[in-house]
Amino acid sequence: MNGSLDPTPAVLVRDLAFRYPDGRHALRGVDLRILPGESVALVGPNGAGKSTLLLHLNGLLPGKAASLHSHGADGDGRQTKTPSVWIDGLEVNARNAPEVRRRVGLLFQDPDDQLFSTSVLADVAFGPLNLGKSRADARRIALECLERVELFEAADRVPHHLSFGEKKRACLAGVLACEPSVLVLDEPTANLDPRGRRRFINLIRALPATKLIATHDLEMALELCGRALLLDGGRIVANGLTRNIFGDPTLLEAHGLEMPLSLMIGKR
Ligand code: ADP
């Protein structure tokens, strides 16, 4: 607790700006606060800055590229050291990076970016081993997580022989094996067939962690997330109840999105 009645946010981002080394501004003063246990959708057109924002949540980006804060940065884009991202009250910086990465589970859009071992079990056990668990504990945790994603039978298979849907679930097991308090999911349903999508949605729904889900699948966002953030041009342009944001066709169209069919026909 932070002394007030509000709980410490699971994710707090203050005035975060970021530009890539080629000078392209990807984030321009992003503010957001996610409370423990919330599920929040991050939506916006391609190039809005969603992936860039997600990568900041576990400190993957600032070390690799030029980062600046609009707050306190001068006109020529000089960097400042003002912290701008906190996870469970912990500032995301080089010193805290290992703990932040333990707390934030990032599921990449492309499972091939995440799978690298010679067996599914080894892949899922990698995280716990890396966190200092014994081989026996890491194996037990990995098998439990494979069970949770309904992939227990695939433990000894070669990851790149799995179907796309199985790969996604193997990646999710790998993320869960590190017991993150915040789950950051980048396009979790992209390229899944309807059955695989439904299965994945149900798995995500059952997870108790705080969730931030970047997606173009607005129907999934409606199902899983009470609140939505609309990002465009590196700025949060709307933040509110998912139903309200997705129920505003003018707002959606202005930012390259369309009202989900279920809202259009009044099914939700
Ligand atoms: P989204 O995930 O919403 O599609 P991104 O975060 O991928 O948006 O991109 C935000 C902006 O940053 C875009 O203008 C994109 O072209 C740019 N960008 C993304 N990655 C890089 C990179 N590695 N180098 C330079 N510019 C990048």
List keywords for this structure.
268 residues, binds adenosine-5'-diphosphate, 33% helix, 11 strands, globular, single chain, five-stranded antiparallel sheet, alpha/beta, Rossmann fold, six-stranded mixed sheet
What topology emerges from the helices and strands here?
Blueprint (H helix, E strand, L loop, with lengths): L10 E9 L5 E10 L4 E5 L6 H8 L9 E3 L15 E3 L2 E2 L5 H7 E4 L12 H11 L4 H14 L15 H13 L5 E5 L7 H13 L3 E5 L3 H7 L2 E6 L2 E7 H5 L2 H6 L6 H4 L4
Parallel strand pairs: 3-9, 3-10, 7-8, 8-9
Antiparallel strand pairs: 1-2, 1-4, 1-5, 5-6, 10-11
The structure holds adenosine-5'-diphosphate.
Gist of the model:
By secondary structure, this protein is α/β, with parallel strands linked by helices. The chain has ten helices and eleven strands.
The global form is globular
Strand content: 15-25%
Number of strands: 11
What profile does the largest beta sheet have? 6 strands, mixed
CATH classification class? Alpha Beta
Query: Which secondary-structure class do the elements indicate?
Result: alpha/beta
Q: What is the fold named in CATH at topology level?
A: Rossmann fold
What would you report as the Rg, rounded to the nearest angstrom?
A: 19 Å
Kindly describe this structure:
The protein is of the alpha/beta class and 268 residues long. It has a single domain (11-114, 182-267), classed as P-loop containing nucleotide triphosphate hydrolases (Rossmann fold, 3-Layer(aba) Sandwich). The chain is 33% helix and 22% strand. The protein has ten helices and eleven strands. The strands form two sheets. The protein has a six-stranded mixed sheet, sandwiched between helices. Strands 1, 2, 4, 5 and 6 form a five-stranded antiparallel sheet that branches. Mean pLDDT is 89; it is low at 63-81. Bound molecules: adenosine-5'-diphosphate. Adenosine-5'-diphosphate is lined by residues 20, 22, 24, 26, 44, 46-52. Adenosine-5'-diphosphate (ADP) is lined by residues 20, 22, 24, 26, 44, 46-52.
